């Protein structure tokens, strides 16, 4: 009577990989894909968005705000919204590819004036008289920091369709659209929705 022989080592290894490793790899792949397509986070590297965002702040980025994309690509699967004035958005600099976070100051069709750090859109000042350095974008308020002046002015710029103007709230200390130009709306990485960690305070949940 023949005695059973043990399965060859390569077969046992393949069986173990399928049973133990493959499910974990699939789960990790799905998590990475969800992070790339649905939600992510960003750590603020500088003070260009003071007083709204401070260096070291960590923010939640809604990747679905302007469209659901095929993971790891720029291919849009589902259009979910348009960039709005006042949104704080994450994008790659057209100048050198650095990932930045700034405010959408103007969208396609807007006529822009910026003098001494104060913004006017289509002839309307964004900061109401007596409101100090607070610009009202409707759903968003921007608390400006003009402690270092207003930076370069903008005179009579009309934003073309499909483009956005990105500005920092710390107008005199922000390398923004005044330096690298307009950004295609479709190139926005996502919308920053909340600060969830602030240095010196710990965990917070502050809407932007």
Write the layout of secondary structure elements.
Layout: H1 9-37, E1 39-43, E2 58-62, E3 68-69, E4 76-78, E5 88-92, E6 99-107, E7 111-115, E8 118-121, E9 124-125, E10 134-136, E11 141-143, E12 154-158, E13 163-167, H2 177-180, E14 183-184, E15 190-198, E16 202-207
Antiparallel strand pairs: 1-2, 2-15, 3-4, 5-6, 5-15, 6-13, 7-8, 7-12, 8-9, 10-11, 13-14, 15-16
Would you kindly provide a written description of the structure presented here, covering whatever features stand out?
16% of the residues lie in helices and 35% in strands. The chain has 208 residues and is of the alpha+beta class. It has two domains: 7-37; 39-207, Ribbon (Umud Fragment, subunit A), CATH 2.10.109.10. The strands form four sheets. Strands 1, 2, 5, 6, 13, 14, 15 and 16 form an eight-stranded antiparallel beta sheet that branches. Strands 9-8-7-12 form a four-stranded antiparallel beta sheet, with no helix packed on it. The protein has a two-stranded antiparallel ribbon with strand order 3-4. Strand 7 (111-115) and strand 8 (118-121) form a beta hairpin. The termini are far apart. Residues 22-39 have low confidence and may be disordered.
């Amino acid at each position: 009577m023949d005695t059973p022989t043990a399965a060859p080592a390569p077969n046992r290894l393949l069986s173990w990989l399928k049973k133990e490793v493959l499910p974990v790899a699939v789960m990790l792949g799905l998590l990475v894909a969800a992070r790339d397509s649905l939600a992510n986070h960003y750590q603020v590297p500088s003070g260009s968005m003071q007083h709204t965002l401070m260096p070291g702040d960590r923010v939640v980025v809604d990747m679905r705000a302007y469209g659901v994309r095929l993971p790891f690509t720029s291919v849009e699967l589902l259009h979910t919204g348009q960039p709005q004035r006042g949104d704080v958005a994450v994008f790659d600099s057209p100048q050198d590819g650095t990932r930045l976070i700034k405010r959408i100051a103007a969208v396609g069709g807007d006529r822009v004036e910026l003098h001494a750090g104060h913004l006017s859109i289509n002839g309307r000042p964004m900061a109401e008289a007596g409101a100090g350095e607070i610009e009202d974008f409707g759903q968003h308020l921007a608390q400006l920091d003009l402690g270092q002046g207003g930076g370069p002015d903008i005179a009579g710029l009309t934003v073309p369709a499909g483009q956005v103007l990105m500005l920092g709230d710390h107008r005199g200390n922000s390398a923004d659209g005044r330096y690298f130009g307009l950004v295609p709306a479709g190139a926005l990485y996502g919308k920053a929705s909340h600060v969830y960690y602030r240095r010196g305070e710990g965990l917070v949940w502050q809407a932007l």
